[in-house]
Amino acid sequence: MDDLTWNMKLTERKIKRRREYWLLALLAALLSGFALWHFFYACTPEYTMRELQSALRHKDSDAISRYVNLELLSSQAYDDLTRNMFAADSTLSPKTKVLFEKFYVLIKPQFIDGTRTAILDSVKNGSWTPPHGDNILKGRQLGIDYDYFIERSQLRNSEFLKTISIQRDGHSATATIEIKDTYTQTTFPLELILEQQEDGHWQVAYIKNYREYLDTIEPLQNKDITAYLASTKDIVATYNKTFQQQQKKFRSLTTSPQGRLSDNQTNALRDFLTQEVIPTLCQRQEELDAQDIPSGAQYIAQLRNQSTQATIAAWQHFAKGMAETDQEELEMAETFHKEELDIDRRIDDIIKHTAITSNTSTIP
């Protein structure tokens, strides 16, 4: 190889090395810039709102815990909701309202703790998960109907659509988001207050206009519930008369001077339940389901269906338990009967609340 060729190859190698060096330097600069940008972006309220939307999509409860102060948010929302629950109830005296307020203050710590757990479980599962196991909020152990309480909070039927705007003021910020009541399809601009934490990341602390949201959505739902109750009034009244007659027949079939039913009575009772009572319940539910259900009345319509199914299950287990002298079947019947009574109480609460608010509010 002559000197000219050798020098040309050396020059080519030097140029190649310079290119590689600059490419590496450029890549390092880009990576450093991205890391720096990401670090500062992660310490912004915009980043928190993006992560929250991602957490809901990917069922990431850990991200929810990091970017939402669930204890503070639940506490503020609880105060707004409990004040809202009796605001329109003119049937309560001031003294009674004070007693209710004291009661809700008393149970607040247990409520907040249980609701925090329920929210995180629901994020993981992708749908609302009611308290279970030994949770004190299960059923009415705490002295309240937790399911109806959550329904009144609009938590289960509020859908996060998008972030509209974010305004920052020092270490606090207001994020306005658009949410939708999935019952009435009504959108609302909810204002979330965010606070910056010591490590720089931001958390949603509480909802600034939560009570305004309740005051906007609840009348719309109550209007639909009122319409639904009116459209099903005759069906309910007609079947209530039938059920009253069946109750009288049930009492006559179960009357025994010896305190124990004979085989003939047991067989007659089983036939009565399976051939008359249960078919009547099914027929009533079919007629209710055939009615147009306004969007805001979905919850009470679902409760009626659940009540019917629980009642049917109770009678089925009772009939089998009586016919086969099976204590386990009778205990199952009792369990379903208690479930039905609990649901019926909830339905009565909704009807009462709707009547009260309809008489004191003007629906736009």
How far is the N terminus from the C terminus? 95 Å
Q: Give the rounded overall mean pLDDT.
A: 86
Helix/strand/pairing category = alpha+beta
Number of helices in the DSSP assignment: 10
- The arrangement of helices and strands along the chain is HHHHHHEEEEHHHH
Q: What is the alpha-carbon Rg in Å?
A: 31 Å
Give me some keywords for this one.
69% helix; elongated; four-stranded antiparallel β-sheet; 4 strands; alpha+beta; 364 residues; single chain; 10 helices
Question: What would you note in describing this structure?
Answer:
The structure is a single chain. The protein is α+β, with helices and mostly antiparallel strands. The protein is 69% helix and 11% strand. The chain has a four-stranded antiparallel beta sheet with strand order 1-2-3-4. Helix 4 packs across helix 7, helix 7 packs across helix 10 and helix 8 packs antiparallel against helix 9. The longest helix is centred in the middle third of the chain and has 44 residues. It is elongated. The N and C termini lie far apart (95 Å). The relative contact order is 0.08. The model has no long low-confidence stretch (mean pLDDT 86).
Quick summary:
With 364 residues, this protein is an alpha+beta fold. The chain has helices at residues 3-42, 45-58, 61-67, 70-85, 94-125, 146-153, 210-253, 263-290, 298-324, 327-360, and strands spanning 158-169, 172-181, 186-196, 202-207. The radius of gyration is 31 Å and the shape is elongated.
Chart the SSEs and their pairings.
Blueprint (H helix, E strand, L loop, with lengths): L2 H40 L2 H14 L2 H7 L2 H16 L8 H32 L20 H8 L4 E12 L2 E10 L4 E11 L5 E6 L2 H44 L9 H28 L7 H27 L2 H34 L4
Antiparallel strand pairs: 1-2, 2-3, 3-4
Helix pairs in contact: 2-3, 3-5, 4-5, 4-7, 7-8, 7-10, 8-9, 9-10
